[in-house]
C-alpha cells in the first residue's frame, strides 16, 4: 500500500501542508499509518476522505460539517456522502455571513471564477451606492471571506486573484465615468516597497474622484525614494502609503517622504502600520476616514481654499 507524507498529500490536493495539519488537529482527519521511522503517513483511504472534504469545502460546505460527515461513515467503508451547498442554488463557495444581496452575488460569481459577473456586480454597486458604501457593503465582506477561506484551507488563491481583477477593473471603469478633477497638487496613493495589496488604494482613488479630488496611483511595491520624488515633482498635497504587513523599509523611508516638500501631508493606512512609531503622520482607520482627511488636506492646499 502506498503511504504518503503530509507534503505529498498537500501537493496532490492542492492545499498547504499547514491546512492539512489543521484538518488533523481540528477535525480529526489524521494520517492513520506510520512510516518505519515513526512519522505519520496517509493511506489511500485517508487521501480519499481528505479529497472528499476538500471538494465539499470548495463547494461551500463548512469544513467541520464536511469532516463530521466523512468521519460518520468511516467505519462502514462506503464512499462518503457530504451535504453540499451548491453554487446556483442559493449557496456559494465563499461564505459571507450576514452579507446583503450584492455581496452574495459577488461571492457566487467569484467562487465560480466568472470574472464578468463579478465585475458587473461590483460596478452595479459602485454606480448605485457610491464607492464608500459599495466598498463596505459589497466588496470588503467578499475580500475578507476570500482571505478567511484561504487561511482556513490553504486553497482558493485563484478566487482571490479573479476577485482582485474584477474589483480593480470595476473601480477603474467607475472612476473613468466621473468628471476629471483638476490636476494641481494631487494626492498620491502607493503600496509600500514590499506591498502587493493595493485594492484599498483603488477604492480611495474612486472615492476621491467622486468628490472632485485628483489623485495618482503608483501601485504595488513603490520604492520609498521614488515616492518621495513623485511627491516633490507633483507638489502632492498628500501621500497615502498602504501596508498590509509590517515593512521596516517603508518606515525608514518616511523621513525623506515627509521632507519631499514643505507642504506635503503624509498618511499611513493598513494593518502593517499597527504599533509603528511613524512620526508626524496621520493614520486614518478606514476608507471614509482616509477620504475625509485627504479631501480636507487637498481643499486647504488650493489657492482659493
Ligand atoms: C486580495 C488579496 C490579495 C491579492 C492582492 C491583490 C491586490 N492588487 O491588492 C494577492 C492575491 C496578490 C495577495 C497576495 C498576498 N497576500 Co493577500 N489578501 C488579499 C485579501 C483577500 C484582500 C486584501 C484587501 O484588499 N483588504 C482590504 C480590506 C478588505 O481589508 P479589511 O480587513 O476590511 O481592512 C481593515 C483596514 O485595513 C481598514 N480599511 C479597509 N479599507 C481601507 C482603505 C483605506 C484607505 C484605509 C486607510 C483603511 C482601510 O478597515 C478595515 C478594518 O480595520 C486579504 C484578506 C483581508 N482580510 O484583507 C488577504 C491578506 C491581506 N493577504 C495575506 C497574505 C498573507 C498574502 C501573501 C503574503 C500570500 C503569500 N503567501 O504569497 C501575499 C502578499 C505578497 C506581498 N508581498 O504583499 C494575509 C495577510 C496576513 C498578515 N497580516 O500577515 C491576508 C489578511 C489573508 C489572510 N486571511 O491571512 N493577497
From TrEMBL:
Keywords: DNA-binding
Database matches in PROSITE patterns: B12_BINDING, HTH_MERR_2
InterPro entries reported in the protein's UniProt record: Cbl-bd_cap, Cobalamin-bd, Cobalamin-bd_sf, DNA-bd_dom_put_sf, MerR-type_HTH_dom, MerR_fam, Meth_synthase_dom
Residue ranges occupied by any B12-binding domain in the UniProt entry: 184-305
Residue ranges of domain HTH merR-type in the record: 3-72
SUPFAM superfamilies in alphabetical order: Cobalamin (vitamin B12)-binding domain, Putative DNA-binding domain
Keyword DNA-binding: yes
Signal peptide: none
Protein name in UniProt: MerR family transcriptional regulator
Organism: Geodermatophilus maliterrae
Amino acid at each position: 500500500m502506498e503511504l504518503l507524507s503530509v507534503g505529498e498529500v498537500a501537493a496532490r490536493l492542492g492545499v498547504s501542508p499547514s491546512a492539512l495539519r489543521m484538518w488533523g488537529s481540528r477535525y480529526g482527519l489524521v494520517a492513520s499509518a506510520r512510516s518505519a521511522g515513526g512519522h505519520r503517513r496517509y493511506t489511500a483511504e485517508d487521501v480519499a476522505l481528505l479529497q472528499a472534504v476538500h471538494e465539499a469545502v470548495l463547494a461551500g460546505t463548512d469544513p467541520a460539517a464536511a469532516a463530521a460527515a466523512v468521519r460518520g461513515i468511516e467505519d462502514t467503508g462506503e464512499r462518503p456522502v457530504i451535504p453540499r451547498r451548491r453554487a446556483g442554488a442559493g449557496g456559494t463557495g465563499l461564505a459571507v455571513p450576514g452579507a446583503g444581496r450584492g455581496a452574495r452575488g459577488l461571492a457566487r460569481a467569484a467562487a465560480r471564477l466568472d470574472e464578468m459577473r463579478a465585475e458587473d456586480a461590483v460596478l452595479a454597486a459602485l454606480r448605485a451606492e457610491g464607492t464608500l458604501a459599495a466598498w463596505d457593503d459589497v466588496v470588503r465582506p467578499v475580500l475578507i471571506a476570500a482571505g478567511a477561506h484561504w487561511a482556513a484551507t490553504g486553497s482558493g488563491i485563484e478566487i482571490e486573484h479573479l476577485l482582485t481583477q474584477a474589483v480593480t477593473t470595476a473601480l477603474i471603469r467607475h472612476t473613468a465615468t466621473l468628471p476629471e478633477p483638476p490636476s494641481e497638487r494631487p494626492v498620491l496613493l502607493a503600496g509600500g516597497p514590499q506591498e502587493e495589496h493595493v485594492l484599498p488604494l483603488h477604492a480611495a482613488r474612486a472615492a476621491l474622484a467622486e468628490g472632485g479630488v485628483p489623485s495618482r496611483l503608483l501601485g504595488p511595491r513603490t520604492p520609498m525614494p521614488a515616492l518621495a520624488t513623485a511627491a516633490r515633482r507633483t507638489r502632492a498635497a498628500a501621500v497615502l502609503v498602504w501596508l498590509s504587513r509590517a515593512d521596516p523599509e517603508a518606515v525608514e523611508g518616511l523621513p525623506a517622504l515627509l521632507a519631499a516638500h514643505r507642504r506635503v501631508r503624509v498618511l499611513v493606512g493598513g494593518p502593517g502600520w499597527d504599533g509603528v512609531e511613524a512620526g508626524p503622520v496621520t493614520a486614518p482607520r478606514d476608507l471614509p476616514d482616509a477620504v475625509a482627511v485627504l479631501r480636507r488636506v487637498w481643499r486647504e492646499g488650493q489657492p482659493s481654499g
